[in-house]
Design brief:
Strand content: under 5%
Largest sheet: 2 strands, antiparallel
Structural class: mainly alpha
Order of helices and strands: EHHEHH
Radius of gyration: 19 Å
Length: 126
């Protein structure tokens, strides 16, 4: 459990979320005007479901990677399947799709990065 004061005093984390501590993960989701007085993080594998049943088998929002990571799937005819070993973020979708359709994009226009789904093919830059 972390109090609002503890979270507010914790610097916003940087770098890969996979390396963040629990308080850094809680801090990344903390917004003082709307967050509560404290945040409770359940142990790994524990879900706050009093009586699991049909339609109630999982939740989202825990600090654990299995709950934080969401798959992003890119596919097109002739593309070989593979799993990206490094972290991918939703902001990486637009630069990747732009590169696929050869859309010229000014340097710095996107927060994300172009994913190397076709080795040797980079996003065009104006």
């Amino acid at each position: 459990m972390f109090t609002a004061a503890e979270l507010a005093a914790t610097p916003m984390p940087t770098g890969s979320p996979e390396t963040w501590t629990l308080i850094q993960r809680a801090r990344a989701s903390f917004y003082a005007p709307r967050s509560g007085d404290f945040v409770v993080l359940l142990n790994r594998g524990v879900m706050a479901l009093p009586q699991p049943g049909p339609g109630y088998v999982a939740t989202h929002g825990s600090p654990w990677d299995y709950d934080r990571r969401v798959p992003i799937l890119f596919w097109r005819k002739g593309m070989a399947g593979f799993e990206q070993p490094s972290a991918v973020e939703t902001v990486d979708i637009a630069p990747t799709l732009s590169a696929w359709i050869n859309l010229p994009v000014p340097q710095g226009a996107y927060d994300g990065r172009c994913l190397d789904l076709d080795p040797g093919r980079a996003a065009p830059v104006e």
